[in-house]
Amino acid sequence: MTDTRIDAQTAAAPVYTVPQERKIVTAIPGPKSQELQARRSKVVSSGVSSALPVYIERANGAILVDVDGNQFIDFGAGIGVTTIGHTEQRVVAAAADQLQDVIHTLFTITPYEEYVRVAELLAEHTPGNWEKKSVLVNSGAEAVENGVKIARKHTGRRAVAVLDHAYHGRTNLTMAMNYKAMPYATGFGPLAGDVYHAPSSYPYRDGLSGADAAARTIGYLEKVIGASDLACLVVEPIQGEGGFMVPADGFLPTLQTWCTENGVVMIADEIQSGMARTGRYYASEHFGWEPDLVLSAKGIAGGLPLAAVTGRAEIMDASQPGGLGGTFGGNPVACAAAIAVFESIDEHDLLAEGRRIEATFRAGLERLAARYDIIGEIRGKGAMIAIELVQPGTGQSTKAPNAEAVTAIVAFAAQHGVLFLSAGTYGNVLRFLPSLAVSDALIEDGLRVLDDAFASLG
Ligand code: PLZ
User: pTM for the complete prediction?
Assistant: First the structure.
């Protein structure tokens, strides 16, 4: 029998190898997952946690299948990684082919075409109509690290600025760039120096217009750092772990103008928001922002590890030869998968799928918000949507964070075969990051479970 996972790559419509439906057949976690959890606790560091300890055996489209045969609707996509769907046919086929040809040579020793092709595709699809170059690395945090290195080399300056509520990674530099100390930095210091946390735009809580929020941020940068010492300002166009904050209109382009006027490199961390996640290739486009450098990771290679720094050629060329790279950066199999991701987005018009998903989610969430006043705000773009929960009876007024409700809803949904993720500086945001393969029927099914979860809060 032929393997449909590979042969189906040329089919016009996606072919799913797992029925796209939820199904719960055991207690959650089931007995096999519990056995694995016991084995894991002996050999895997307890510093590595798992939000839902069901062990996944198979994943396809928008569905996760665990070792006990339970099927979950996946509204997390591995935190925004399997954006075009789990085990997407074209990605699987491209990676399988590449495995037969070349698995590794190391681009800095003997190069290969796939790396060059990914850089071409990034130059074409990132915002800004100018000459661009890229470096490929392994992870989001490594992309952030390289973006900062390149900006420092280009400007000859030392300071790095980030925004409140940011998340940029878990490496030594990036843990200093996160807003939350716990769990990312607590006890892991000393932290990297010369990292400054400037005020962000969080319209739901600060009520500021884009112009006023930008003026506040710029005031901080000028007073606390001084433009002449600032190498770069690193910003997530829609903040991810922080809680899907959509900045007020004008905030990002105003900051970019100030950066340009002051010789500061402005870097878009599009690691969570990029690669067709929000109904555009890059979320920056929603705000009319054309960043100097753009960081891609997560969704870029359909689940294989790959990340990139892409940007203005004159900035990207600041490094001396040999200053950028790494053993696995731009691995041929990951690059082949990334090429397939770009092709799949274009061929199946997945940007439109992001807009469809937003419309379905928003309509459903608005219905829920009319009935449950603890939904303080619905926000986000495309397949990057969230609700922020506040204390009961207070509605939109006091906005006291309600993390307990998020925890309870996530737990309830998991028991019913739906994987939701939490987020937010205050832990009170429920975020939806489905793959673009999720059907309206699955979204509606997930929303029904969400409704039951709200009702169960009493
Ligand atoms: N920048 C905007 O979202 C990764 C973290 C999951 P890496 N976010 C998910 C977890 O708990 O580790 C992320 C991000 C933004 C950078 C990163 C870091 O990307 O690939 O995890 O290093």
Answer: 0.96
